Amino acid sequence: MNILSQWIRSYVPGLAAADRELAEALTLRGIAVEGVFEVGEVGNGSLFEMDITTNRVDAMNHYGIAREAAAIVDRPLVSLDDMLDDTLLSPQSRTVPVKVSIEAPELCGRFTTRALSDVRIKPSTGVVAERFALLQQKLISNAVDATNYVTLAMGHPTHAFDRDKLEGGIVVRRARSQEKLRTLDGVERVLDQEDLVIADEKKAIGLAGVMGGWDTMTIASNAALTSMLRL
Amino acid sequence: MIGLFCEEPMSPFEIPGLTDYSPSALDSFFSAILTQFDQEAAAVHSTEAVEQLRIRWIGRKQGLLTRVGEVLKGAPPEARREVGMRFNALKFAIEPRCDPEQVKTSGPVEDAIDITLPGTRRALGAEHPLIRTMNEIVTVFAAMGYSVGLGPEVETDYYNFESLNFPPGHPARDTQDTLVITQQERKPLRDRLLMRTHTSPVQIHTMEEQPPPLRIVIPGKVHRNDELDATHSPIFHQVEGLCVDTNITFSDLKGTLDHAMKAFFGSSVKTRFFPSFFPFTEPSADVQISCIFCGGRGCRKCKQSGWIELLGCGMVDPAVFAFAARKQPAYDSSKISGFAFGMGVERIAMMKYGIGDISQLYSGDMRFLEQFR
Q1: What chain B residue is nearest to A25 in terms of C-alpha separation?
Q2: Helix, strand or coil for residue A67?
Q3: What is the Cα–Cα distance from B197 to B224, expressed in whole angstroms?
Q4: A-B interface: how many C-beta pairs under 8 angstroms?
Q5: Cα gap B53→B59, rounded to integer Å
Q6: Beta bridge partner(s), residue A170
Q7: Which residues contact B239 (CB under 8 A, 6 or more apart)?
Q8: What beta strand segments (E) does A91-213 contain?
Q9: Whether the Cβ atoms of residue B69 and residue B75 lie closer than 8 Å to each other
Q10: Chain A contacts of B277, Cβ < 8 Å?
Q11: Dihedral of CA A37/A40/A41/A47: which sign?
């Protein structure tokens, strides 16, 4: 997994240690940095190649590593209670309800969604585009990049669905035996009851926490729906 | 009976009769026939002569062997088996030498031995570098009172994962790309067979068989679904260790491994321990040794860090003792504690002997292996 030092610093403003010192300090505390590489132009900081052990899933994202760094240097960690600025939303978006039902509570403890209307799908810009470029993460579109950004930042699987293609509310359930789902990579997958899917009331629309479905992907629509899932 | 036909060697040979079928009588009967054949065969040097020999001895109607068969028909039932075996042996001795093709291709052979030739020198074999490294590691621990434990390479999910605190679905299972045996889907998960991905299952096997105190070192072959490249092989070797007793602490672990590394790489080698994670130990550590090539100053081999990572280790997780305690209640984590460690043999052998490509260890290439005499 790749981590940007500048991204970590944005969460721990008081972090004074140089990148290599930070890498060494993290490694000595079990957050192993395997390689440190300068990226981009001077001032862009380093890219850390991480080898995080499976007991530290909490540190498999930028905020998790920043949390660790903040504790090591004993400096405050920026809290992530960003609220969506309601004034940016169309009045319609503010009131759209989305019905969510969890039919497999043993696999999914919480599922949150946010409906957005009148979204213009276009290329990402600004900090998202810059950080993705340094991480060599593929830029797709603002809606998809936003969900990937959240995953890289917080380790949280999120996905954007095209609301116009959903039939009814969202259902989180186990796949039916032999149920088919064409995922975003274009592969038609045959699922079984061990798989958890995000579905609408008719069909599976994503493999939970893994990959979205092809048919509900956000291309050039003007309506999108983002969702988050807590396993 | 011995001088059966000595009186007149040139006279036409007749198959003698037989009344006594005791083993000694049969011996002289058959050896007399074979001696006669040998004499006649030795005088044969042309294809025509071979043909004559063939007709005389194994010709279908008048052949002497047919006559032998007739004589032997008189054998009593209890001697039949013995007689049959000897008759077949005689046929085997005679038939190939009556074949004109055979005689032609082999030609007359000079059977003399040149006693001035040097003897056949047998090249001495050598221990394979992997086996040698494994033995050296085991020897270091044997000197500290460890005995050797072994276990099967085909394991159940229970021994390879579950009892080592890898619960079903735990992401740590994914870090060991497992080769599973096919057609196990109908069994419960814990009984499904797989190729062991580490030597650690032997820890559980050993604890189930004997109560603490325990000190074992486990050398063995392990399997993972890895592509072969310069440093990875789908089949490789590990040496694992387990020590369980009352009052075993992390200091004992550090002392043991520090001593082992000094015994193995020389007394100037230093060790350092990093936090790490293995499901079956808590706390877990990775062990690095000061670079044996540059002494810690930094070189290409240690990527300028001065340290080389060599071992994984940790204090045995109480959950693992709980699994062992199902068969051996003495593994009560409130009374005993222990540590475990493991290392890859290939990595150590490659470092020690300066081998750049892991596949050389499995190539069977004599030019490579002969260097380890």
Answers
A1: B274
A2: helix
A3: 6
A4: 24
A5: 9
A6: A100
A7: B134, B137, B138, B199, B217, B218, B219, B220, B342, B343, B345
A8: 100-102, 110-116, 158-161, 170-174, 180-182, 188-190, 196-199, 204-207, 211-212
A9: no
A10: 30, 53-56
A11: negative
Two tokens, residue B287:
């062990």
- The whole-angstrom separation of Cα B177 and Cα B197 is 8
Burial of B70 (0-12, 13-18, 19+ CB in 10 A): exposed
How close does chain A come to B159, measured CA to CA in Å? 20
Q: Which amino acid is at B349?
A: A
**Helix-helix angle B64-72:B47-58, to 10 degrees:** 20
Q: End-to-end distance of chain B based on CA atoms, in angstroms?
A: 59
Nearest-5° angle of CA B286, CA B291, CA B297? 125
Q: Which residues of chain A lie closer than 8 angstroms to B170, CB-CB?
A: 54
How far does CA B105 lie from the centroid of its chain?
40
Name the strand (E) or helix (H) holding B345: helix B345-353
Any idea what the Cα angle at residue B6 is, between residues B98 and B68, rounded to 5°?
Answer: 45
Rounded Cα distance between A171 and A180, Å, is 16
What letter represents residue A94's amino acid? R
pLDDT of residue A225: 54
Q: Which chain B residue's Cα is nearest to A195? A: B169
H/E stretch holding B340: strand B337-344
Rounded to whole angstroms, how far apart are CA atoms A151 and A135?
13
What is the C-alpha separation between B176 and A95, in angstroms, rounded? 48
| Single-letter residue type at A217 | M
What single-letter amino acid sits at B261?
Answer: M
Tokens for A149, please give them. 């950004």
Mean pLDDT (10-residue bins), chain B, 373 residues = 43 73 83 85 80 82 80 81 84 81 58 82 87 95 95 95 92 88 89 95 96 96 92 94 96 96 92 94 94 86 85 96 96 96 94 90 89 85
Q: Are A57 and B171 an interchain contact pair (Cβ–Cβ within 8 Å)?
A: yes
Q: pTM (2 decimals)?
A: 0.71
Say how far apart CA A26 and CA A46 lie, in whole Å.
14
Burial class (CB in 10 A: 0-12, 13-18, 19+), B202: buried
What is the pLDDT, as a whole number, of residue A94? 65
Question: Which of B133, B128, B135 lies closest to B370 in space, CA to CA?
Answer: B128
Our CA-based measurement puts residue B213 at a distance from the nearest CA of chain A, in whole angstroms, of 30
